[in-house]
Amino acid sequence: MEQQQYDSLAAIQTASDTAALKEVRLHYLGKSGAISCLSERMRTLSKEERPAMGQLLNQWRNTFTEALEAKGKILLDQADAATFASLDATLPGTASWQGGMHPLTLLTDRIVQIFRRLGFTMAEGPDIDDEWHCFDSLNTPLDHPARQEQDTFYLPDGRLLRTHTSTVQIRAMEQAPPPLRIIAPGAAYRRDEIDATHLSQFTQMEVLCVGKGITLGDLKGTAEFFFRELFGTETECRFRPHFFPFTEPSYEIDVRSSTLSHQWLELAGCGMVDPAVFEALNKKRGDRAYDPEEISGFAFGFGLERLVMILTGISDIRMLTENDLRFLKQFAREF
After folding, report:
1. pTM score, whole prediction
2. Which fold has domain 103-331?
3. How do residues 95-112 score in pLDDT, each as one tens digit?
């Protein structure tokens, strides 16, 4: 056995590569290998002979295994060194594009930063909601067109895909008493025909400010500050009377600036929160935290895709959903 042990260790040392080393391992530790065969023959020995022979066999196996692992590491290091020796470290690396934010994400981040300077915080809500949060709480009558199936995506269980992020306003006021200042960016869903200016899923930003003594002047000042920060200090805003079920009075906001080619564009809807909305909330909460005799507030909202199109000159809204890198790369550092 001593001669076999010597020969096995010598075979390991003379192995020139990993393939040769594998052959050595199989020759001694394989099913028909020398060490394996001796292990099988142990049962033919007497009880007196087995302990001494077993000790010698285990010593051989351990010594052989350790030498095998050490030689394997040496061969691997040699192979790595040979590979690196053929590399030219002076060659330039392969250029890779690190990626960038989507135009909608870039604009959302910019808008959030503007409102955070005014003390607004972010709020979120579920994309799948119920009729109470989407319509009833917002003073929307049963016969309103938005509640029809041709305008809204209803699910079999009666829930729906929210048609606006105004649902987040309601959920925020349910959870916290006034004063409250939130912004709610997120997806909204409507059964619109998809074309160059419409998508069935779009991104909306909702703004809500509620507390004691909130006036129409606060609404106008906040909206004007926001649009001037977005489009430039020379931006003009005008408020045209309109109707929304959840605000009274209600207005459309038109904006004009050099960024918009000095043309008036309708960009947002706004108004003072209707007292009926506060009353619905009080009933839901079971208290008078939003007593319309003491509390007032304003809200306004706008679509982000349209703002992206205006700021970048995109002519077709569908470009924002096609994920064409040739198109998206040019906006990676915009805004």
Report:
1. 0.70
2. BirA Bifunctional Protein; domain 2 (3.30.930)
3. 777 778 899 999 999 999
